[in-house]
Q: What sequence folds into this?
């Protein structure tokens, strides 16, 4: 984590949740928590990751971007290192 006031640490997460709320959740009423969970799951796994284009990924979806990185032989973004 960076210092207090540095907004770059969570910018990606904030952007994602803003889109999720704007495109899928606002102005909807869910009868059960399970319906809400299912709706969010479908949005993330069937639209956001495989289809929705992202400007920062060279206008590729996250799935397409990761596949391109894999083919180029580059390491994944979430690679862990031994301390």
A:
């Amino acid at each position: 984590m960076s210092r207090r006031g540095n907004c770059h640490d969570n910018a990606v997460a904030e952007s994602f949740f803003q889109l999720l709320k704007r495109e899928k959740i606002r102005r909807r009423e869910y009868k059960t928590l399970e319906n809400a969970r299912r709706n969010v799951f479908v949005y993330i796994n069937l639209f956001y990751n495989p289809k929705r284009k992202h400007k920062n990924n060279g206008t590729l979806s996250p799935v397409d971007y990761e596949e391109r990185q894999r083919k180029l032989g580059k390491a994944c973004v979430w690679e862990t290192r031994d301390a």
User: Anything to note?
Assistant: Helices lie at 11-25, 33-48, 62-72. The two ends are 16 Å apart (CA to CA). The chain has one domain: 11-72.
